[in-house]
Design goal:
The chain has 349 residues and is an alpha/beta fold. The protein contains twelve helices and eight strands. Bound molecules: manganese (II) ion.
Length: 349
């Protein structure tokens, strides 16, 4: 059993220790060597702007895998999924490209289930945020009940009947929430999908651009949401403490983190499809993942809406992609104070 005191010393040294396990006296539960399974999902049909399908490759090219390995993770890259092009995908009501989004998410759900069966924490590199549907579904199929932390400028909870744009990347949460099942019409290529998340197991962080129907839904279902006003009022530290207290009040469920890069301020991450002013700082964006990592419960992480074609300059793209990488590294034990392997020893002269 590691005492709190030695745990603190280890943490001062930058050794990864699972705080929650220590609090609850479950020894042998800290994961010095996390295993990470990467799924590339170059999918863009949940919205209308070109380029977001390049996300997986630009994030890999920025050195994600190597840097995860450097910080002690065992990494397996499952490669990029391929998605079929559909000739006939006319809108259903207002909803655009339903069939393409339905079949892509079915494929992603299967891939996430496979990665979870192999025992990894899964990382889904998007692609647009419609991928949240298949990622969450696959996660729930693999592990059962889970908590969802949706970090985003937008709530992405319009239903097919309330969507002002018809883009499914603004509707993902409504498809997987049990409480909204009766509000979702039958859609082609979605018969595989069963709602799998309860509203009480969902927390939003960073909201600042909601449609009226979305705001209504959050109030109707009593969804826990920390908008940018709450981040300003409480500070990110308390937001994260309250998030984890809320989600683990009864049972500790695996956490699904769905991270939309547009939650961070566009001055830092401009290369994204729907930027909104007034977002998280780089530091707040990374802190969220450092805190969630410490719970030891992160089970699937989505990183979505990185779009290299939306940057005005090379520097815009570089800043967006490197921030996405840092956010992901924070999920897997990177500490800004520095890290070293637990068996590190100084060379003797
Ligand atoms: Mn989103």
């Amino acid at each position: 059993m590691i005492s709190m005191r030695s745990a603190r010393t280890l943490q001062q040294l930058g050794v990864t220790v699972c705080k929650r396990s220590l609090h609850h006296h479950h020894h042998h539960h800290h994961h010095d060597r996390r295993s990470v399974g990467i799924i590339g999902a170059p999918f863009s049909r949940g919205q209308s702007k070109a380029g977001v399908d390049q996300g997986p490759n630009v994030i890999r090219a920025a050195g994600l895998l190597h840097r995860l390995e450097q910080q002690g993770c065992a990494v397996k890259d499952y490669g990029n999924l391929t998605f079929e092009e559909l000739d006939h995908d006319e809108p259903v009501g207002r909803v655009k490209r339903v069939r393409a989004v339905g079949s892509a998410n079915q494929r992603l759900s299967k891939a996430v289930q496979d990665v979870k069966k192999d025992g990894h924490t899964a990382v889904v590199l998007g692609g647009d945020h419609s991928l949240g549907i298949g990622s969450i579904h696959g996660h729930a199929m693999a592990v059962g009940d889970l908590s969802v932390v949706w970090v985003d400028a937008h709530a992405d909870i319009n239903t097919p009947l309330t969507t002002p744009t018809g883009n499914i990347h603004g509707q993902s949460m409504s498809y997987v929430l049990r409480e909204l099942q009766s509000k979702i019409p039958v859609l082609p290529n979605f018969s595989w999908l069963k709602p799998c998340v309860s509203a009480k197991d969902l927390v939003y962080i960073g909201l600042r651009d909601l449609d009226p129907a979305e705001h209504y839904i959050l109030k109707l279902l009593g969804v826990k949401a920390f908008s940018m006003s709450e981040v300003d009022h409480l500070g990110v530290t308390r937001v994260m403490e309250e998030t984890c207290d809320y989600l683990s009040a009864k049972v500790k469920k695996p956490i699904h983190l769905s991270y939309d890069i547009d939650v961070i301020d566009p001055s830092v991450t401009p290369a994204t499809g729907t930027p909104v002013v007034g977002g998280l700082t780089y530091r707040e964006g990374v802190y969220i993942t450092e805190h969630l990592c410490q719970t030891g419960l992160l089970s699937v992480v989505d990183m979505v809406e990185v779009n290299p074609l939306r940057g005005q300059t090379e520097k815009d793209v570089e800043s967006t992609v490197s921030t996405a990488v840092d956010v992901l590294l924070g999920c897997f034990g990177r500490r800004r104070e520095g890290n070293h392997e637990s068996d590190y020893s100084l060379p003797e002269p």
